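Support request, priority: normal
Reporter: lab tech (M.K.)
Component: structure prediction queue

Hi team, I submitted a job for Glycosyl transferase family 28 C-terminal domain-containing protein from Tardibacter chloracetimidivorans yesterday, and the status page still shows it as pending. I've pasted the exact input below so you can check whether something in the sequence is tripping the parser. The sequence length should be 341 residues. Please let me know if I need to resubmit or if it's stuck on your end.
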Amino acid sequence: MTVRKRRPRICLAASGGGHVRQILDLKPFWQEHDHYLVTEPTALGHSLATEYPTRFVDHFAFGQARIASRATLAASGLRNFWASLRHTLRERPDVVISTGAGSALFTALLGRLTGARFVLIESFARVRGPSLFGRMAHRFATKVIVQSEALKSRWPHAEVCDPLKVLGAGRPEKEPLVFVTVGTVMPFDRLVKGVESLQKQGLLPERVIAQVGDGGYRAEGWEVHERLPFDEVRAILDKADIVFCHGGTGSLVTGCQAGCRVIAIPRDPERNEHYDNHQEEIVTAFAERGLIQTVRETDDLPAALAAGRTTEPVRATTEPEKLIFRLRQLMAEWFPDSESK
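Reply from support: The job had stalled in the queue. We restarted it manually and it finished. Here are the results:
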């Protein structure tokens, strides 16, 4: 009698924005196995749920205490925990793979406690130092993978897979269109008002489309959306000449992929715009490679815009083939008698 080999079940856990977009980059790997996603109920999350088996958990980050009450943090953490426990007991994953951040912590921990192997892929946004999620989760991870050589010096036991690839100059034909995007976590009114000021000064004659976040500032005369599905964002980027964005990895990478003139302002935790300063790290890394213009203050946006207009955009993308290859190796080592789809 032939015994059918069991396929291992993979849980792909990630917070919204750039974290879950990094999971999408790994699709050639995880589509070979039984899988499901755990993420936040953002516009991107709901878009993914139409294509892939997806379970939702509440947004949760320890840095919330900077901009919200501890009661709010505790409540979101408790809801996240119970949802994570429910999904873990129902799905019984054999492997949990996470790119962070806080929203994925309980899923990773509970998966490990119920016998799953756990692969921690430290965020692409972390160039020089680990995230809080990474500092906590690496203690119980089966395998730790970082995406910069500098970070490996902090975790000598980690493996390095740097996915960023510079493609060079040359881009598709663009329209006189500006796209402003603040990501999925929270509004970023300082950025939006800074771009509006450029327009009022006569420095930005192009049509403007803006994604401003829930309850974000709405400039007059713009096409404004609080949220946008990922496919619509990509379609806008294909046409947009200039992108103003926060320092989120998802916004930066997709803008560079599309050959846009990207101008970024990192969120400032001292202004309660984010939980920590990781956006400062990532915009600095992109700027040092000549991929974007970046400023910290909106008063410096006119100079950044002028520099962006006179600089030929350098396209870049993430190529996760090395990481995909390593994940396939791990699955073969851990489950030698299993079969993929």
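The radius of gyration is 20 Å. The chain has a mean pLDDT of 91. Let us know if anything else looks off. Ticket resolved.
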